[in-house]
Design a protein that fits this description.
Number of strands: 4
Number of helices: 15
Distance between the termini: 47 Å
Strand order of the largest sheet: 1-2
Shape: globular
Structural class: mainly alpha
Radius of gyration: 20 Å
């Protein structure tokens, strides 16, 4: 088993789940390991875990965000559309029960909130400007429309579509389109104000085209950007890279927490999972210009067995895969709808 940084920390390997700094494919920790850890967990009770309080809890997070983030939530037309897009994507797992899924709007608001948690807890120094940029990046990072990742792959396969895979976007059309929207939409540009250039730089960071490529300039503007009056100098590339790596990690933390809260799993299991996420956040550091995790020494669990401190976190991610992310019924529906859409467009 290997723990620590990936060869390329924070890089999305092409699936819908951002790659962790602790790669699952290199681990042998099962979901049952986390269940055993949770049975011995003794943490403070969190009243927000009660399902009847979920909606009020998620809505309360807005008041903890920056004024700029609150203005975007309240007034930007594109963000309001996310209220009708469920995280399940084309599978529509909401059909299997009204309480099992969350919307992309909820995820984006929560991810912005988690960005501030990480800024407070991680062993990483962010300036006030960088902290706000990271929060706004998380608020705007997931501009899905109906169909989510399944529709991404359909759009990317349409004859004549932009070759975003050649530009290092993989099949993540929603991320490419979202960065375009942040550049082209006058309303969000005005709302972002002095943060616009750096938010756009983080969201468009994966793009591998030369900055002088006319197609890239059309999509995301010139480099260096044209700044509004009073805006600070653009962040250096190593800081943009760090914020992009944090984006992928925060994205994963957010959907892990929301999926756990909505899963119907035992509350002690959920509480133990939230404690694992916090423990992980508290050990995030920079190594050179890369994001990394401090790996504490091995320790004994409640039964006296030797384990790494992040073994429960790995086990929680496996449990998430086994019981939520790859649940057979919605995964089958997703695959069928994706194929049907592709076949229809191919005719």
């Amino acid at each position: 088993m290997k723990q620590g940084t990936s060869e390329i920390p924070g890089q999305n390997p092409g699936g819908s789940t951002p790659q962790s700094l602790i790669p699952l494919e290199e681990c042998c920790i099962s979901g049952e390991h986390f269940r055993a850890h949770a049975r011995n967990f003794d943490g403070a009770e969190d009243n927000s875990l009660a399902s009847r309080n979920y909606t009020s809890w998620i809505e309360s997070l807005q008041s903890r965000l920056s004024p700029t983030a609150q203005q975007i939530i309240a007034s930007w037309w594109s963000f309001k559309l996310l209220q009708e897009v469920y995280n399940c994507g084309a599978a529509h797992t909401k059909l299997f029960g009204p309480e099992v899924d969350h919307t992309r709007r909820e995820h984006c608001i929560h991810a912005a909130y988690v960005a501030n948690q990480v800024a407070d807890r991680a062993l990483i120094t962010l300036t006030p400007h960088e902290r706000t940029v990271l929060e706004l990046v998380m608020l705007l990072h997931d501009p899905h429309r109906l169909g989510s990742h399944a529709l991404d792959r359909v759009i990317a396969s349409i004859p004549g579509a932009n070759p975003i895979a050649d530009w290092n976007w993989g099949h993540d059309f929603h991320e490419y389109h979202g960065a375009q929207e942040v550049y082209r939409d006058d309303t969000v540009r005005e709302l972002l104000g002095v943060y616009h250039a750096d938010v756009l730089a983080v969201l468009s960071f994966p793009d591998s085209r030369d900055p002088n490529d006319p197609s890239r300039i059309e999509d995301f503007g010139p480099t260096p950007p044209v700044l509004p009056p009073g805006a600070p100098e653009p962040l250096p590339k190593d800081r943009i890279r760090l914020l992009y790596q944090l984006k992928d990690e925060i994205d994963r933390m957010s959907y892990l927490e929301l999926d756990l809260r909505r899963s119907g799993l035992d509350l002690q299991l959920v509480q133990a999972g939230l404690a694992c996420i916090q423990h992980y956040q508290e050990h995030m550091v920079t190594f050179g210009s890369n994001l990394a995790i401090v790996l504490p020494n091995r320790m004994k669990d409640a039964q006296g067995n030797s384990e790494y401190p992040f073994d429960p976190m790995i086990g929680m991610r496996q449990l998430h895969r086994e019981h939520i992310a790859t649940l057979p019924s919605p995964s089958l529906v997703d695959a069928v709808l994706r194929e049907a859409l592709w076949q229809t467009l191919a005719k």
